[in-house]
Amino acid sequence: MRTQNPFSFSLQHFTPLWRRIRSRRFVMGWLLAFSSAAHAGMGMVERAGESGRMPLTVFYPTAQAQQTVMRGPFEFALAVNAQPDSGQHPVVVISHGSGGSPWVHVDLARTLVENGFVVVMPEHHKDNYQDLSDPGPSSWKLRPGEVSQAIDQIAQDPLLGPLTSTNKVGMYGGSAGGHTALSLAGGAWSPARFRAHCDVHIAEDFSSCVGFITRLNGGWLDGVKKWVAQTVIHWRFNDARPYSHQDARIGAVIAAVPFAADFDMTTLVKPKIPLGLILAGQDINQIPRFHGQAVQKICQTCITIADIPQAGHGMMLSPLPPLGSTDSIAFQLLSDPPGFERSQLPALHQKVADFFKSHLSTP
Fold first, then answer.
1. Does pLDDT of 176 surpass 90?
2. Nearest to 262 by CA among 201, 333, 332, 307
């Protein structure tokens, strides 16, 4: 658990006049940062994570020309290793879902960059597109601390550190990253609660309990699949300790289609910081009534940024990666349901940027 930033300080002994002057300067600085980046290009640096540091991909405003860049199956217009725009830029950390990569969040990152943010994407340990060896609760224990580590590293980065403001950071996460967001908002969860949820709802919420390994299809093997899943879950996840994480630098979070069934919902009635929710009515990977809708129902201060009835779990991914054949588990769980139009996503991404601008620009 992260304690209060040792470099923070109080203004309680300063005069009210100084408070007003400082407040106006703070707000003007943020307004200038946001306005100056309105037509900026997007720079990118990739930090490999040598010497025990965490791999990071960072996107930021730059005036330098963009070039066509290939990453995985995608083609992007980016200015690699470009000089960032001057000024102090606020930071948003994006926490990817299980097995995720930076590339499936580039469209959101671009909108945030156009609004003046530096976007930091950590590669979560053993739960990323290059190494998916330990997802689920084992990863969820580490992820919030990895977000804090990513903030530490960007503050120390030789290129971007001098130009970023990390005293009030935004954090966005989808799916497992949404679980991370709820933890950082003050929510407490435990592996034992995960086990209890899967004990009761294994058939209804199977993919939440087992991931992308297999699905129930109504055949004779379904009973075997459920028995094996529950046996493994009982063996691995009996830890009843509540897990949460606080970082005084994080000022607002967004949880998109989050895994949430293992949270003590009483800890999310009034989150410690502003919490935005993005929900998808046709999500069959995390059934909404057990996850996002459960948080929405109990939370008294949450802001529902979007609740799209036609959307599926893959709404959080833009661009959407190749999902294989229609028979693949990835296609079945992440492809867009009939009636959902991806043309809605730019407006949603702007709502995300507006949420962070609203909650992070207030001194």
1. yes
2. 201
- Architecture in CATH of 16-189+249-360: 3-Layer(aba) Sandwich (3.40)
Sign of CA dihedral 211, 212, 217, 222: negative
d(CA 47, CA 57): 6
Which amino acid type is present at position 250? I
d(CA 346, CA 189): 32
Asked whether the beta carbons of 129 and 104 are under 8 A apart, the reply is no
What does the pLDDT look like over 5-49, one tens digit per residue?
332 222 232 233 223 333 443 444 444 444 444 456 999 999 998
Contacts of 227 (CB under 8 A, 6+ apart): none
Q: What is the mean pLDDT of residues 110-114?
A: 98
Residue whose token pair is 């580039």: 106
Please give the share of the chain, as a percent, with pLDDT higher than 70. Answer: 88
Cα–Cα distance for residue pair 324/331, rounded to 1 Å: 6
Question: Are the CB atoms for 188 and 181 separated by under 8 Å?
Answer: no
Give the tens place of pLDDT for each residue, 294-329.
999 999 999 999 999 999 999 999 999 999 999 999
CB count in 10 Å sphere of residue 174: 29
Residue 60, pLDDT above cutoff 80: yes
Q: Structural domain boundaries of the chain?
A: 16-189+249-360, 191-241
SS3 42: strand
- For residue 359, which phi and psi values (nearest 5 degrees)? -95, -20
pTM: 0.88
Could you tell me which of 65, 62, 185, 177 has the C-alpha nearest to residue 118?
62
What per-residue string of b and e applies to 79-101 under the rule 16 or more CB within 10 Å gives b? beebebbebbbbbbbbbbbbbbb
